[in-house]
Amino acid sequence: MTITLVNPSGLPQVEAYRQVSVATGSRLVSIAGQVAWDADGNTVGVGDLAAQVEQCYLNVATALAGVGGSFGDVAKLTVYVSDWHLDKMPLLMEGIARAGEKLGAVPIPPITLVGIAAPFTPDLLVEVDATAVLD
Q: What residue ranges define each of the domains in the chain, with the CATH number in brackets?
């Protein structure tokens, strides 16, 4: 495996994701921001943050499969949430957990969460981009 996920001592021991990923592969893959669209461009989970997060993660996995990788090759995720406030955290975590279970990727690699004012279209609540490393 090209990615090792670690929660070093001295940092919070977060259950949902790991603080650090160590990549040993040779191909760096950057995935464009993925939104909650299915293959036909239809929005999945309109008004449902958890469902949209899940779809974004599944889309990242689909993008990686297209270049011979899997979600297990993800070294870093950035999650952009529209109109972020702390009471959205349970839904965000639910979507991450559901995606992680479907993808067999528990724990999830390091995540940066960024609150944004609004997405590029009002039915989208979240966007996720990723960096992965493949052999």
A: 3-134 (3.30.1330.40)
